[in-house]
Specification:
The complex is a heterotrimer of chains A (about 300), B (about 550) and C (about 400).
Chain A: H1 4-32, H2 40-58, H3 61-85, H4 90-109, E1 124-125, H5 127-130, H6 135-139, E2 141-142, H7 144-162, H8 164-174, H9 176-181, H10 186-212, H11 225-235, H12 240-263, H13 269-287, H14 290-296
Antiparallel strand pairs in A: 1-2
Chain B: H1 2-8, E1 25-36, E2 39-50, E3 54-58, H2 65-73, E4 80-85, E5 88-90, H3 95-100, E6 103-106, H4 118-123, H5 135-149, H6 164-177, E7 182-186, H7 194-209, E8 213-218, H8 221-227, E9 230-235, E10 238-244, H9 250-258, E11 285-294, E12 297-307, E13 312-316, H10 323-330, E14 338-343, E15 346-347, H11 352-358, E16 361-364, H12 379-384, H13 396-408, H14 425-436, E17 448-452, H15 460-475, E18 479-483, H16 487-493, E19 496-501, E20 504-510, H17 516-523, H18 527-534
Parallel strand pairs in B: 3-8, 3-9, 6-7, 7-8, 13-18, 13-19, 16-17, 17-18
Antiparallel strand pairs in B: 1-2, 1-4, 4-5, 9-10, 11-12, 11-14, 14-15, 19-20
Chain C: E1 2-7, H1 13-37, H2 42-54, H3 57-81, H4 90-107, H5 114-143, H6 147-168, H7 203-221, H8 223-233, H9 235-240, H10 245-272, H11 277-280, H12 284-294, H13 299-320, H14 330-351, E2 352-357, E3 385-387
Antiparallel strand pairs in C: 1-2, 1-3
Helix pairs in contact in C: 1-14, 2-3, 2-13, 3-7, 3-10, 3-12, 3-13, 4-5, 4-6, 4-10, 4-12, 5-6, 5-10, 7-8, 7-13, 8-10, 12-13, 13-14
The chains are: A mainly alpha (about 300), B alpha/beta (about 550), C mainly alpha (about 400).
Chain lengths: ~300, ~550, ~400
């Protein structure tokens, strides 16, 4: 365990897990309100390309992050209009969002491809603690967004479990008809959380260029992280803290390839990469058993438009 | 609209109106009218609820009880007239506003989030809660309310794990938690076992003892007599009478409910004409000791039933007493837990809907568009829905058949290839009957026909035609079973009647020999009537009247 | 005041046409904004785009070449989606089909005459897709597990499996000669779908049109298709009529998977001629869902929509090489996405219209009667909903 390369692997897993966690937390909020958004990949790409452009023209990291996040939110708003107001299929709308977001991001990003980004997020060492073995580099020597992500996971857990607003949100995802009859504004809550989900996905994309690899590349920037985030929400059974842990696990599995290659261990990278997805299916099927599903399953109204029945 | 009418509504008293005897009026409806497209659901309804009383609104299905309740709690707004709370006119624009004034409604269909705990459901959408929920406080108060009113329920239990009776308690706790002083209970016993109903009555008494007032909506005479202080009877959207329970009888209430004296019944026009097979012909449709248990609940409890060729049998009963399940079991859609089902002497138990049809069964379900017909398919394809089809679907014959039916039954449709969704209720029913009665009187025609609520929601002309078709089916030697919650419908069509109560046959006999009162009491589950068939022990004093 | 969606009392033919046409116009307008921001003349780009894809013989055939697999993935999605079964894993089924098809091309191709070899590739690819869809179908039919998630997860597994076979191992599919840049082994020539002259289209196009007709005929003329229609739109009616839901769900999802696999076979036999991850990972499966949705799950409309989207993709490639313009290829992807978003937004106006309602006349906002907005009913029974405005 004192293997320096392994510690570096752990530290890198944390960083790799952050964008997955952010995007998945956003998706979790949307899905808890009953709206499935398959456009995560598109929103992340838009967030990344916008953050890159703002970063290079303004030089401000935080401004780039915020604007990138808002760009993701804007795209999510389209999804909200289509699915909540116009009752389009959430699946078709989300996929179209990914196609549009990918196209727009790569089109806009054409002119900046290969350029370096002037600034990026740097680790903040918590001085005495950062020198601890293992825990030092892994826990106490990371960039601010890492800590922000952890705080966000805790905050969302608390929001869902402890607050009146969180209770209303959950009721909208579980049974919009009941929520409506209790005077809760179903459409408004769905809009809010779908857009919040887009903001987080945009932030996740922004972090990819601001915190991980300070450059924009058409294929390399997200490389399917948005889809992993979608899987992660299911894997984590719609619980924020499990999303965080799962994100680090997914990050670990992505970094493990490099580590094993460096060690000269010959395990095919592709087979390792399959594991999280297979595991998600197993988890889903196990949780599919009727009595368990009642407690940890998907929000009951996930994917369904809500139409109030009037006489 | 209602805004302008409120001050003008004739006899609106300016301030608190002491009722006769000086008791305060908790809640009142003053000449309220509520219309829906094509119907007056409530017409100039007067209703007064005194402080601390249980006041029942009694009436048959569609009498306007639920509409009145919806108006009283703020779910609907009256088109004319107004609602008064403690003598003052109020405008309730939503149930939330109703609750703010201490009026809480417990719906027949629960509004609960299954995956939430009891406590979470209780405070969901409650504007009085702080932004940060104090779980321990909520749970304590829920438990406290439960104790005070005899509503034992674990605040931490998930609703999905609760029985129906427990869920109802949660609904009641929900409105009590929010400070309701007036409770409206819409058909609360419809889903309860007798023991649960008894517990509910205890709760109701505990509530009135604390000065709360309860509106009890029901069509069960027995429990009305048992629980309420006063009764308002409705029929056809209007109030037909208001009486104190102590000064009335089940019989008088039944008369008010039906709107005519029981002696002067109007009988079904056709004289007893048992059709062809007068002797002991094999029943075309037969249920022998059929039981159905689902999720621990006994839905059908030893049903014995036989419909002979040329006979129309009607199944009456209050909604939710097993009619739906009986139809599904007889039609082969649901396999019974025990007992046998035979169609034309062939045992089809548990062999599926196709097998029952092959044996000669036809079924016209209550839900016409969505169950009986597929809204998205053409009329021709709907003709084929229940037929045996080969690998390839051949439509030519079905199309011709459909075209003939359109002419014969005057079905209003753009054509045979129009989607079924465009049909009105009456036309949908005609298409269904055309399909189900195909080949009537021939070898390939149906031997037994089950029809659920055949004329519900139809205009007079269409209803007439449907009755005619069923009559014709009987003339051709078909065995017809009519299942309906509309007593008039059953009585006007059936030669013989069966009353279901809690999944059992509570009363059975020739329609001509059963009085309306007997039937009503059996539907309400009054013990005397149930026993009256066999032993005739005459426990219920009113039940003895007019027994054969 | 607020806006309310109300069901149209009468549907006219032009409502169905106006929606997609309006969507295309609106999407082009939005695209024009982004083009202008990036410094291109929108009108020039659009003119060239049209010319590149739909005027010359090579342009049209290239568009059709891209449309070819889209037709089949579109059919794969349509078969499932019209039953309200959301198999979004045609992408993965396509990879699995390509693996199966390439195997047949390698193992059986050399020993069979041309038409049979091609048939073997296509059949094996369909089986591959079907096998890949099997877990999804079984879990859905018997346990009610969400097919959305399982099909999506299996897509990634298929993708990594395909990459493993070529990049990560010395598998049967990998060309042993290629060591530095691993590639798939070429299938037997007899197993390739012949091309028409020098054009990039070939018998693959004929095959997919035939498949579209076959799917249409299956839905329209067979009992299986009939049952699928009933189960998809009215599960209650299916129970009533004694149609086994489990059986029909299973068949629908497996058919969908087989079609997704067939798309992989058509790519292998018609274009890639090997298991070629780089040449197959084009998002054809995902785009197929969009094709199906725009075509309202109608097989013949799928042919048209696939051609249109194929043209759009093809134009992107052509634009890039255009002298003087040098518009990035991605413009077509962006336009495609924009058209999709507008098209699905416009969809509801075929059956509904917006009406301005004075507040106060309707039921109280936020607290009305909401008895039957049943989760099982994708579009509510009343066909009306409030729109916050």
């Amino acid at each position: 365990m004192n293997d320096a390369a392994f510690v570096a692997l752990l530290a890198a897993s944390v960083v790799a897990g952050v964008p997955i966690a952010l995007a998945a937390l956003g998706e979790l909020l949307a899905e808890r309100s009953g709206v499935l958004n398959l456009g995560v990949e598109g929103m992340m790409l838009i967030g990344a390309v916008v953050a890159f452009q703002v970063g290079n023209s303004s030089g401000s990291l935080w401004l780039s992050l915020v604007v990138g996040a808002l760009a993701g939110g804007a795209l999510a708003l389209v999804h909200a209009v289509l699915t909540v107001t116009l009752r389009a299929s959430q699946i078709v709308s989300g996929l179209s969002l990914t196609i549009f977001g990918t196209g727009l991001a790569t089109f806009v990003g054409k002119s900046i491809e290969g350029l370096p980004l002037a600034t990026d997020f740097r680790p903040v060492a918590w001085e005495p603690l950062a020198d601890l073995p293992v825990a030092g580099p892994v826990v106490f020597d990371q960039d601010p967004i890492v800590y922000l992500t952890v705080v966000l996971s805790v905050a969302i857990t608390w929001y869902l479990r402890r607050t009146r607003a969180g209770l209303s949100l959950r009721s909208v995802g579980e049974s919009p008809a009941t929520a409506d009859s209790m005077g809760i504004a179903v459409a408004r809550l769905r809009y809010l959380h779908v857009v919040a989900g887009g903001v987080l996905a945009g932030a996740a994309g922004a972090y990819l260029v601001l915190g991980q690899v300070p450059a924009w590349s058409q294929d390399g920037t997200t490389s399917g992280l948005g889809w992993i985030a979608l899987a992660l929400v299911v894997f984590a059974s719609w619980e924020p803290m499990r999303v965080l842990l799962g994100a680090f696990l997914f990050g670990f599995s992505r970094q493990l390839n490099f580590y094993l290659q460096a060690k000269g261990v010959d395990v095919p990278a592709e087979l390792l990469s399959m594991l999280p997805y297979l595991l998600t299916i197993v988890v889903l099927v196990v949780w599919g058993s009727r009595d368990l599903r009642r407690r940890v399953g998907a929000p009951a109204a996930l994917g369904l438009p809500y139409v109030r029945d009037e006489r | 609209m209602s805004d302008g009418d409120t001050p003008g509504a004739s006899a609106a008293p300016p301030a608190s109106a002491p009722a006769p005897g000086g008791v305060a009026i908790a809640l009142a409806a003053r000449r309220v009218t509520k219309r829906f497209p094509g119907v007056v659901a409530n017409g100039e309804v007067e209703f007064e609820l005194r402080q601390g009383e249980v006041h029942t609104v009694l009436g048959e299905n569609g009498a306007g009880k639920s509409t009145l309740a919806a108006l009283l709690c703020g779910l609907y707004q009256p088109d004319e007239g107004h609602i008064e709370r403690q003598g003052r006119p109020v405008r309730l624009r939503s149930p939330r506003e109703g609750l703010a004034r201490g009026i809480g409604m417990v719906h027949q269909h629960f509004r609960l989030v299954e995956r939430f705990t009891v406590a979470e459901n209780v405070v969901l959408g409650d504007p009085a809660q702080p932004a940060l929920l104090r779980r321990a406080d909520i749970e304590t108060r829920v438990a406290e309310i439960g104790e005070r009113f005899g509503l034992p329920v674990d605040p931490r239990a998930r609703v999905s794990s609760l029985t129906v009776g427990q869920r109802q308690r949660v609904e009641i706790v929900k409105v009590l938690y929010r400070g309701a002083e007036v409770l409206l209970l819409d058909e609360p016993t419809a889903v309860l076992t007798p023991q649960e109903a008894e517990a509910l009555f205890t709760t109701v008494r505990a509530m009135t003892a604390e000065g709360k007032a309860v509106v009890f909506i029901s069509h069960k005479l027995g429990e009305v007599m048992a629980v309420s202080d006063r009764v308002t009877v409705m029929r056809g959207g209007r109030v037909t009478g208001e009486v104190a329970t102590a000064a009335t009888s089940a019989r008088e209430l039944a008369e008010l409910m039906v709107g005519r004296p029981i002696e002067a019944e109007v009988r079904r026009g056709s004289p007893a004409d048992p059709g062809t097979g007068d002797g002991p012909a094999t029943p075309a449709l037969e249920a022998a000791d059929v039981r159905l248990v689902r999720g621990g609940q006994t839905l059908l409890d030893g049903i014995d039933l036989a419909v002979r060729p040329g006979e129309v049998v009607g199944v009456a009963g209050v909604a939710g007493n097993g009619q739906r399940e009986l139809a599904a079991v007889l039609a082969g859609i649901t396999a019974p837990s025990a007992g046998r089902v035979r169609v034309a002497g062939i045992d089809v138990t548990g062999r599926g809907a196709r097998a029952a049809r092959d044996a000669g069964l036809a079924f016209v379900p209550e839900d016409r568009l969505g169950t009986g017909l597929v809204p998205g398919l053409s009329l021709t394809d709907n003709m084929l829905l229940t037929r045996r089809r080969g690998f390839l679907v051949t439509r030519r014959a079905a199309r011709r058949e459909m075209a003939t039916a359109i002419d014969a039954f005057e079905i209003k449709t753009p054509g045979t290839e129009a989607e079924a969704r465009v049909l009105s209720g009456g036309n949908a029913q005609k298409v269904l009957l055309a399909r189900e009665l195909t080949g009537l009187g021939t070898d390939r025609g149906p031997r037994a026909i089950i029809v659920a609520s055949p004329t519900r929601g139809l205009d007079i002309g269409a209803a007439e035609m449907v009755r005619g078709l069923l009559h014709e089916a009987r003339q051709h030697g078909g065995a017809v079973l009519i299942i309906s919650e509309d007593l008039d419908e059953v009585r006007s069509l059936a030669d013989r009647m069966v009353v279901l109560y809690r999944g059992r046959v509570a009363l059975e006999g020739p329609t001509d020999e059963l009085t309306l009162e007997e039937i009503g009491l059996a539907m309400a589950g009054v013990a005397g009537a149930v026993a009256g068939v066999g032993a005739g022990d005459g426990a219920g004093d009113d039940a003895a009247v007019g027994s054969p | 005041m607020r806006l309310r969606l109300e069901r149209r009392l009468e549907q006219r033919w032009w409502h169905a046409v106006a929606a997609p046409v309006g969507a295309v116009v609106a999407a082009l307008a939005v695209g024009a904004v982004f083009l202008a921001i990036e410094g291109f003349s929108p009108l020039t780009v659009y003119r060239e785009l049209f010319k590149a894809s739909f005027t010359s013989a090579f342009g049209i055939t290239d568009s059709l070449a891209i449309a070819t697999p889209l037709v089949v993935t579109g059919l794969a999605a349509a078969v499932a989606f019209r039953m309200n079964l959301f198999n979004i894993g045609a992408e993965g089924q396509l990879y699995a089909g390509a693996i199966g098809g390439a195997w047949a091309g390698l193992a059986l191709g050399p020993h069979l005459p041309a038409p049979l070899a091609v048939a073997a590739v296509l059949a094996a690819s369909a089986v591959g897709g079907l096998v890949w869809a099997l877990p999804m179908a079984v879990f859905k039919a018997w346990f009610g597990t969400s097919e959305i998630i399982t099909s999506l997860m299996l897509t990634f597994v298929a993708q990594y499996l395909m990459r493993y076979l070529i990049f990560g191992s010395r598998s049967y599919w990998r060309d042993p000669e290629s060591t530095n840049f691993p590639q798939g082994r070429k299938i037997a020539e007899a197993a390739e779908l012949p091309q028409f002259g020098t054009y990039r289209i070939g018998w693959g196009l004929v095959v997919v049109v035939a498949v579209a007709v076959a799917v249409w005929a299956l839905i329209r003329f067979t009992s299986v298709g009939f049952d699928m229609n009933v189960v998809g739109t009215s599960p209650e009616a299916a129970r009533y009529a004694g149609i086994s839901t489990v059986r029909v769900v299973l068949m629908g999802l497996l058919l969908s998977g087989a079609l997704g696999g067939l798309a992989g076979g058509i790519e292998v036999a018609g274009r890639a001629h090997a298991l070629d991850p780089n040449g197959l990972e084009l998002g054809l499966g995902f785009t197929g869902i969009v094709v199906a949705a725009l075509a309202r799950y109608n097989p013949f409309a799928i042919l048209l929509v696939a051609t249109f989207l194929g043209g759009l993709r093809n134009a992107g490639v052509a634009l890039q090489t255009l002298p003087g313009a040098r518009v990035p290829v991605e413009v077509s992807l962006m336009l495609q996405g924009a058209i999709l978003l507008f098209a699905i937004g416009a969809e509801i106006f075929v059956r509904h219209w917006l009406r301005l309602v004075r507040s106060g006349l309707g039921p109280a906002a936020g607290a009305g009667l909401s008895t039957a907005a049943d989760p099982g009913e994708p579009v509510g029974p009343a066909g009306r909903a409030e729109v916050t405005a």
